[in-house]
Design brief:
Length: 522
């Protein structure tokens, strides 16, 4: 799978060079050139979350085969139109958008798939290898693409990219995995799955910190890749082959970064790694803004490539390591929205800024943003979660209900507690810590109440969308969640254990009235 992805990524980088170079032949405006990256990234904003939800629900093998076949057809169309000489800026952006859409439907499932093939202790390295794959292809693909454009045509580069999808399709077709484990609970609908994923991400402070810091990094770092074609042609006066070699320098640096990553991870915290990477990429932006010597720019791009792989691997590995198995693909969908969406918006914003203020001023602004971004880490620090803490806590007993009436509509769960005398403050602190656990696993609202007549009586109340969703909530309780609940139980009075009650909406037969209905309102 890694090798097939590598072949496809090489084709993708060849296509990137070809698309940017073709757009430069169609127009000299900075905006359409920068929009190439935007067109490839915007589909993530539209499709990544639904794609992740589908990836968590269906047979992943069939799902990936359909998505890769769609991308193959889009790449074939782009190559055919380019060879026929009928490509316009709008048509080029539309087909790049189509390929980006296929990638958006593939990425959440694909990124979570390969780490599952190794033991849990090796998953951070497997996640890092996924980023290495992309950047190793960056070392080869752009150079090959630039040379092929110079030797033949842009259309042939697009057709070679189409052929690269066959490697991925062949490997997926031979893979005998991807089936989802069976469950006695009815499967989620896509809409329910999306809402469950959104609740989990919103209810996880660890994930929110990663998303915030990824946004700040990629928004400004995107200026380098969006404006590099203009820097190569207008400042360094390079041909397509020279531009490809510049991108190759980035890839070479990324490979070097992958080689030193395990050693740096042992010696530096994730926050320190991201800070160092952000400052290094900011330095690269300054070099591109003011240096006119091609060799020096190439060296700076190699160092920037090293920093880029350090940042991507740090953010991606922390994020994936904080997701349990049931929500991995849809959770990655939100990460891709933030990362690729920030890339798209940053590319468009920097392109428009360069059009008005010039390349140097735009890259200087990006360097300042990359230098100031790590300051956020002083307030929002990364939180690491051990893999065993995300494992299911075990089978919880199914809640009881009247066998003659299947619950319909939302479910309100109340848990009555009587804390030990003198431990009320510690009890409330522990109880409030569980609000994120309840929300992550399915609660749409959560409150704590205190009895005004009996101050030592507390009620925790949360609402779940349906009875089936509450049954799934039982399955989703992790060892980490269970530890918090055990802490609460240890603070309660053993002679008066917690009492759990499930409340459902009463059913009223059509045409009938409640027994206590007011005749005047009938």
């Amino acid at each position: 799978m890694w090798l097939a992805q590598f072949v496809s990524n090489i084709g993708g980088w060849m296509q990137t060079v070809g698309a940017q170079w073709l757009m430069l032949s169609l127009t000299t405006s900075a905006v359409p050139v920068a929009l190439i990256q935007t067109a490839a990234s915007v589909p993530v904003l539209l499709f990544a979350v639904p794609a992740g939800a589908v990836g968590d629900l269906v047979d992943r093998r069939r799902f990936l085969l359909i998505a890769q076949t769609f991308m193959l057809l889009a790449a074939l169309a782009l190559g055919a139109f380019a060879l026929a000489g009928v490509v316009t800026p709008f048509l080029l952006l539309a087909l790049i958008f189509a390929l980006g859409a296929g990638q958006a439907w593939t990425s959440p499932t694909w990124q979570t798939l390969q780490p599952e093939l190794v033991p849990a202790s090796e998953r951070p390295q497997a996640i890092a290898l996924g980023s290495v794959n992309q950047n190793l292809a960056r070392a080869v693909g752009p150079a090959i693409g630039g040379l092929l454009i110079a030797a033949s045509s842009v259309g042939s580069v697009f057709l070679i990219n189409a052929a690269s999808f066959l490697a991925v399709i062949a490997v997926i077709a031979r893979w005998r995995g991807g089936e989802r484990p069976s469950s006695a609970i009815a499967p989620e609908h896509v809409g329910e799955a999306i809402r469950a994923g959104a609740r989990y991400v919103a209810g996880s402070p660890a994930l929110r910190v990663v998303l915030l810091r990824a946004t700040l990094f990629v928004f400004f770092a995107s200026s380098i890749w969006a404006l590099l074609p203009l820097t190569a042609t207008k400042r360094l006066h390079l041909s397509s082959g020279g531009y490809g070699l510049l991108l190759g320098c980035v890839g070479i640096g990324a490979v070097a970064g992958a080689a030193v990553l395990p050693r740096l991870r042992d010696r530096m915290t994730p926050g320190a790694l991201l800070t160092a990477a952000s400052l290094a990429v900011g330095g690269l932006a300054l070099v591109l803004a003011y240096v006119r010597v091609t060799v020096l720019v190439g060296v700076a791009l190699a160092l920037g490539g090293t920093a880029w792989i350090l940042a991507l691997s740090t953010l991606n590995s922390i994020y994936q390591s904080s997701l349990p198995a049931w929500v991995k693909a849809r959770g990655m969908g939100f990460y891709l929205i933030v990362f690729q969406g920030g890339n798209a918006l940053g590319s468009a914003a920097m392109g428009l800024t360069a059009q008005q203020a010039g390349l140097s001023a735009t890259l200087l602004a990006a360097a300042i943003g990359l230098a100031l971004g790590p300051l956020v880490g002083l307030r929002f620090r990364f939180r690491t979660i051990a893999p065993e803490e995300l494992q299911p806590a075990g089978e919880w007993p199914a809640p009881a209900y009247d066998a003659d009436e299947t619950p319909n509509g939302p479910v309100m769960v109340s848990v009555e507690y009587r804390p030990r005398p003198g431990l009320e403050k510690s009890f409330l602190t522990a109880l409030y810590d569980t609000r994120w656990s309840r929300r992550r696993t399915g609660a749409s609202s959560w409150r704590v109440w205190r009895d005004s007549a009996e101050p030592d009586r507390f009620v925790e109340q949360f609402v779940v969308g349906s009875w089936q969703e509450h049954l799934r909530q039982h399955e989703r309780v992790s060892a980490r969640d269970q530890e918090r609940l055990n802490r609460i139980r240890a603070l309660t009075d053993p002679e008066r254990p917690p009492v759990v009650t499930h409340w459902v909406a009463p059913r009223i037969a059509t045409g009938s009235e409640p027994a206590d209905a007011d005749p005047a309102q009938a």
